[in-house]
């Protein structure tokens, strides 16, 4: 039985999709005004593993991840750069796609851009006003009337009075209540704007996700996910708006990922303490980064250090060492390794426990290797198959060991060829000299009846 933690109930609960075998899932996407950082990698890799596992479990997943391509931060960045806002969002959308495909994230079925959904947002705001949950403020902006929505606070588990006392005391003559949030903002001169019944302006951030998710997945769907910073106010507001418009429950299951942190602080663009995905991928293989990201549970905080990346590389080396020199074979069914792996993933996608089942499997392969190569190969096929569910272990072991070192593999291959030539000529001194030269480059060579292979020593 697959159990998933629901932020709404703060409990793990059995996952029962609305339509048997099918899952509608909306994931809040990136605000595209800069390069993606490791915090993004953390959230979207978690989502990627969740989706891969749901599919492996036989569910058909309709995955929607939006692009926020209009917002205050985008407008600010465009004006700092003296660029059109669309030039900024196009550039960083392209960069995001490059980074996400380098990370091996499965592409969503739909990737709506907020600016393509303005009519749907306007339609939603009209409904919310008609249902008496929104009003036009004294400045002409449209606000959601938080006090009119009975269950406001259901996701963040705060009652409205608590939220009120926590809210910045805003002296505002335009809103009825400090918690009221904007649905439609009138444009200042020079800002991007769209026509609306309330004048030229642009949507508030929260309404974007309500409009795009309901348009693509219907007014009621299975899973909505994002980082935990989105619980309040973004997702709380999404529930209020969507249900105020449709008068229908919005989402069954809310999933939130823990923060990736630098020291004690959340990594974020606005705090300026971020490391971009592309910076890390210049020095580390994507698989190493992915391994680091899935080595803790998706809801736990994760602290980024370069040392943790080196440890991830070492863990992967243990797996790839187990996979070396195995022929193709059908994987065994119903092993304790697969059962442990599934039990861990069924328990709210517990990747660290699932990885420990894979470590046991790698150990078993090494044990079998000495006595039954066919059984070792079959278990190797299982390791590869289960690794694939987590998006790891799909590289050929030789390639894995030959990447991520500091020396050009072509130079190493040339030295190995020279050493083989020396050995053929029984020039042992030269062969040893080349072996030492390779060792100085942290390359170890292994001679076997199949030939000579090499790897970087870490
Ligand atoms: P943004 O581009 O800031 O709108 O964020 C896009 C997604 O990344 C949201 O789901 C955020 O919650 C998530 N996110 C941003 N920073 C972090 C972080 N440091 N750790 C984990 N997730 C993050
Ligand atoms: Zn959102």
TrEMBL record:
Q: How is the cofactor bound, in the record's words?
A: Binds 1 zinc ion per subunit.
Main subcellular localisation: cytoplasm
As one GO molecular function, the record gives: cysteine-tRNA ligase activity
Q: Which residues bind Zn(2+)?
A: 28, 209, 234, 238
Q: What is its EC number?
A: 6.1.1.16
Motif range ('KMSKS' region) = 266-270
Entry keyword set:
Aminoacyl-tRNA synthetase, ATP-binding, Cytoplasm, Ligase, Metal-binding, Nucleotide-binding, Protein biosynthesis, Zinc
UniProt subcellular location: Cytoplasm
- Motif 'HIGH' region: list the residue ranges: 30-40
The family annotation for this protein states: Belongs to the class-I aminoacyl-tRNA synthetase family.
Q: How does it assemble?
A: Monomer.
Protein name per UniProt: Cysteine--tRNA ligase
> What is the source species?
Aquicella siphonis
Q: What is the lineage of its organism?
A: Bacteria, Pseudomonadati, Pseudomonadota, Gammaproteobacteria, Legionellales
Gene label: cysS
């Amino acid at each position: 039985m697959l159990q998933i933690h629901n932020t709404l109930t703060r409990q793990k609960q059995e996952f029962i999709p609305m339509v048997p075998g099918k899952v509608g899932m909306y994931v809040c996407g990136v605000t595209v005004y800069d390069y993606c950082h490791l915090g993004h990698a953390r959230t979207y890799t978690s989502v990627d593993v969740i989706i891969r596992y749901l599919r492996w479990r036989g569910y058909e997943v309709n995955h929607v991840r939006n692009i926020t391509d209009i917002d205050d931060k985008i407008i600010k960045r465009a004006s700092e750069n003296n660029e059109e806002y669309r030039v900024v969002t196009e550039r960083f959308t392209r960069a995001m796609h490059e980074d996400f495909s380098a990370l091996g994230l499965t592409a969503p079925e739909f990737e709506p851009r907020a600016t393509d959904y303005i009519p749907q947002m306007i339609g939603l705001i009209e409904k919310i006003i008609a249902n008496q949950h929104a009003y036009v403020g004294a400045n002409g902006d449209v606000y959601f009337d938080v006090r009119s929505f009975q269950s406001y606070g259901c996701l963040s588990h705060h009652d409205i009075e608590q939220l009120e006392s926590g809210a910045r005391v805003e002296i505002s003559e335009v809103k009825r209540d400090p918690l009221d949030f904007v649905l439609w903002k009138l444009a200042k001169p020079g800002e991007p704007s769209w026509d609306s019944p309330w004048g030229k302006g642009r949507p508030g951030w929260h309404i974007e996700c309500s409009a795009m998710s309901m348009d693509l997945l219907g007014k009621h769907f299975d899973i909505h996910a994002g980082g935990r910073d989105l619980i309040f106010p973004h997702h709380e507001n999404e529930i209020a708006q969507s249900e105020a418009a449709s008068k229908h429950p919005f989402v069954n299951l809310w999933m939130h990922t823990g923060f990736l942190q630098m020291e004690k602080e959340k990594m974020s663009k606005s705090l300026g303490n971020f490391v971009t995905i592309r910076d890390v991928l210049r020095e580390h293989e994507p698989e190493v980064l992915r391994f680091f990201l899935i080595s803790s549970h998706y809801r736990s905080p994760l602290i980024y250090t370069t040392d943790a990346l080196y440890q991830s590389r070492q863990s992967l080396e243990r797996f790839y060492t187990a996979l070396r020199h195995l022929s193709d074979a059908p994987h065994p069914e119903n092993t304790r390794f697969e059962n442990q792996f599934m039990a861990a993933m069924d328990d709210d996608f517990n990747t660290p426990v699932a990885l420990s089942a894979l470590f046991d499997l790698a150990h078993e392969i090494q044990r079998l290797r000495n006595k039954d190569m066919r059984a070792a190969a079959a278990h190797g096929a299982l390791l590869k198959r289960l690794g694939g569910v987590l998006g790891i272990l799909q590289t050929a072991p030789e390639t894995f060991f030959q990447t991520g070192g500091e020396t050009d593999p072509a130079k190493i291959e040339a030295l190995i060829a020279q050493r083989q030539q020396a050995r053929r000529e029984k020039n042992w001194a030269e062969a040893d000299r080349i072996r030492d030269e390779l060792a100085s480059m942290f390359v170890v060579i292994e001679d076997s009846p199949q030939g000579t292979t090499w790897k970087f020593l870490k």
